[in-house]
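Quick one: examine this chain and its backbone structure tokens and tell me how the chain folds. Here goes:
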Amino acid sequence: MNFPIARELQRLFDTKRDVIKAELRDALTTIHLSFDLWTSPNRFAVMAVFAHFIDRGARQQSRLLALRRQFGTHSGQNLAASLVGIAQDWEIRGRVGCVVSDNLAANDHCPQYMYKHLDSSMRPADIKARRMRCYGHILNLVARAFLFGKDAESFELESEINCMRGLAEQDLSHWRAKGPIGKLHNIVKFIRSSPQRSEHFKRIAQEEEYEAYRLCEESTAELEVILNNDTRWNSTYMMIERALRKRTDIRAFIFALEGEQDEAKRIPADDMLSNEDWRVLGEVNAILKPIYLQTMRTQGWVKLTATGACGRCW
């Protein structure tokens, strides 16, 4: 690193690293770790590791310790080796408390290897007690199982394959089999599949809102419908919630297309939502809403609200 900017960046990094090391060294508590893995757009596996502790001023703190590529298989042993190396780099080998991660089998095995490296005298019962499951991920699993059954990944994969192969009709049938949620997905996808349809829907929505004297309350984005993102349940909840609010607009849009001679320009009859379908969507929305709100409460820093403290609840 011979360039002035590169040298300055390295100097700043080293300085900040020393500050964080001092914070970790002076912490009043053990250092609890949370980690997760993602796949980057260029298909690299990336591990993020956070440290959580109480500082000398009795304040809760979180620090990003690592954001690095994860090589090899995502086995518990490989993940543990990465975490042990990170603990070594930050000089906290003897001070690691609990570990928080998603509810995957590899994450169950990871602490067993990690704690044995950090403290060979630790008993299996103590290791098990220090493995904490991510609360947000538990909520995610509950909602996905409710919406898509136990094998949500297979459902999502089949939909992705249909889209990649251009099998539009097969994908419509695939989603339609999920009942009212699948039919709503197909309707929204139809609306959003072209700029012209989206604009047509927004014009209808504006007319409906004008008649109700509420146009000024909604932005252009609020006039649109939301398409869910495969089996990511929170986007499905938002799709349903918006559709229930825009139910009149959706019906008006469908009615406006009934005169089209070209069948491809009309929503398929099999995707029409009956009154019973709308009732089911309302019930699904009522079930998902508290899960969604609870998920939102777990995000961010701890703060007091009218219903108690929330945030950073893993």
User: Anything to note?
Assistant: The longest helix spans residues 4-26. Residues 175 and 182 are 4 Å apart (CA to CA). The beta strands are 31-39, 45-54, 60-69, 96-101, 131-133, 303-305, 308-310.
